[in-house]
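Supplementary Methods, section 5.1.

A reviewer requested that the exact input to the structure prediction be made available. We therefore reproduce it here, unchanged from the version used in the analyses.
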Amino acid sequence: MGKVLNIHNAKLKTASVEIKTLTIEGKQVTLAVFRQLEIKPLINKEKGFLNGIPWGRVNYHPDGCKDTFKDHYHIIWQAGTELFRDNIPYLGGLDHIFASHYPGTEQFFGNGYNQGKANLGEEFIRRENIRKQVKAISELPQIFIAV
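The structure derived from this sequence is encoded token-by-token as follows.
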């Protein structure tokens, strides 16, 4: 039988955590400023590479995110000297998205059947590149935005 947790063997310890915030000239960015960031695609959907440098995930869903993927991350990213935001789907929903949101492609089945819609090898590489990018994005730190 395992140990029983009780007041005699339990202790509270203080842990420190790092909270990353987005600031401009030392002032924390607000939700109003975040909403003003232009939405541009971080992932190039044709080849599966990044169009810029992702900074982190923001757990904020303005307006209920009616016009995007059901389960997604909000990402702040950089191209040159500008910041943008994008909605990136969760890794688990990519096959459905490949079938419904990327024009000219069909769902990739394990047996390789793609109904002749795309070069199978190129399509497989593209989708694997996108999967790798989404996995890396899902591991980005969370950025906190002031209310």
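The chain has a mean pLDDT of 77. These observations are discussed further in the main text.
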